[in-house]
Request: fold
Amino acid sequence: MMAMEGVVLKLPSFSQLVNPNYFSNRTPLKFRFNFPKFSSTASLSVPEAAPVSLGHSTRPDFEILHQKVNNGSKLVYLDNAATSQKPSAVIDAVNNYYKSYNSNVHRGIHFLSARATDEYEMARRKVAAFVNASESSEIVFTRNATEAINLVAYSWGFSNLKAGDEIVVTIAEHHSAIVPWQILSEKTGAVLKFVSLTEDEVPDTKMLQDLLSKKTKLVVVHHVSNVLASVLPIKDIAKWAHDVGARILVDACQSVPHMVVDVQNLGVDFLVASSHKMCGPTGVGFLYGKSELLAAMPPFLGGGEMISDVFLDHSTYADPPSRFEAGTPAIGEAIGLGSAIDYLSQIGMQKIHDYEVELANYLYENLHTIPGVRIYGPAPSQNVHRAALCSFNVEGLHPTDIATFLDQQHGVAIRSGHHCAQPLHRYLGINASARASLYFYNTKEDVDDFIRALVDTIAFFTSFK
Amino acid sequence: MNSAAASASAAGFRPPTRPILPLPPPNSSNPNPPRIQFKPNHHSISTRSIQISHPKHVTPPQPPYLSTTLTVPEKLDILVTEFKSLPEPIDRVKRLIHYAGLLPEFDESGRVESNRVTGCTAQVWLEVAMDVEGSMRFRVDSDSEITKGFCYCLIWLLDGASPGDVVEIRVDDLGEMNVGILPIRASSRVNTWHNVLLSMQRRTRDLIMEIYGDHSSLSLLH
Reply:
């Protein structure tokens, strides 16, 4: 078994890292692209004349996308904001861990344990490099982004917030970025202040600035909205927060998988993301926190690994990140996340982003032309780039009915509901919306299939009226 | 889509035989239809007023039973058989949407927070009352057509049933109605009709509690 090279380079080039799992045994598929299309070592001869889109070139890596559902329709998976699919490389990495070197990490002396620890800590370094953290100890592995936010709320929040302090959030936040602060404010007497939207349906940054004051201790914002598809100017917001002496926590769940995110450049204090939205397994996510902040934070969960010495009447605690990683971690899953980062980096986050901007525009333009469709969030333009997702409603139809018919009749998977953003939906005056969300392995054909299916769905329901 | 038989003798809807208030004709222009009262005073039955707006369409699922009154278990069998006969999930969707159009009128005044069935992705309002004969009466509305279809089936099943029957029916019995090849067994926000049924049962129990003071009388009310 080839040993993994331990060289971790900063973005953008991860080409030195060779993932041995590309060569492990797998069920053969018709097409096999083991390398990006421009690699000279590709075993298939790709005709130079016809450039293949990123969606087409990566699809073969995702076995799950090649199936029929329900009434025999081929699956069109457009629910990526909920969770992403995993390339074979990631699935193989997790399998390989369990097959070859599964062992508890950190204090084992034996061969398997040493190997597991190496790979686990390598995954941490990969995450650190992926977001350009200054050191890997600034990455705390958690179960998911929600747990990461709760970690900050309980650990940093309780020891830094008191009655009268203010936390500024937007009404478009995911519930995980609202509820922990509500719980915290109930217990400490801190106050939540909400930023609403502009007419263009983006968070009102002017209002955010106005809400900031000496009382503000924390600003919690999303980077990319999972409903509005809008992108916030994090670098600016971080600066404004710091100007009043506040910290900033960024929910990067919808940005880290889709674009270059550089925590040092953005200047954020805390950042959270989930593995499962970026081609990694479920069960692992991470918190990025500036070293000096983490060092001053008390523990979140108590138990093994996060301690230094344990006595009967007291214990001393480990340094970060271990201080916040109680118990046996999701070792295989973290390694899977590392493998996902390798996969994404080999493609290149800028390339992924550029392709998704194209897809985002294509989706928006086509959806926009259907009569009766109302898309939420800003309209795309030169200055306004939307994420590759659209939350929408169709006049006179319930989104759940739309999603059910799309699924049953056409194999198109979208989401309907409030997408964990009830305050936002209430603000927009709706109970629920439908949402189609894309990732780099979707193609324009997927969008075409969706649009066709949606038109048919609308016609179907209209015929009953 | 319109049923000709708005007759109470069709299996299913059993309007009270001795209504307190005259039922308005289907196209009544009465701007203030009497409303279902939710806290019946059992000391003076005559003050209990029930408005069962006579159903627009009374078309039970196939086959129609014209003269017999079916028990809830019998109706359940019919319902399950009907849905089992539709192997393609899309046909179930179509059937449910057809039923959605048959749902009786739901008064605007019923769309209040206290009537909302919580925990659903669609909005559902449920009115629960007891008629003069002690049977449970239900009216449901929703902003989702598919949900309305499910609710029609629940209404057909349980409107006019005894409180005991309402409370005894199990969510599992209705599993066949699930749209989709892999029925979602777990209770979640997606399983709106689970929530509606549970709400019907809970509010039936509450009503019994209010009237009779305890639940044990449920077993007597068959």
Notes: The first strand of chain A starts at residue 68 and ends at 69.
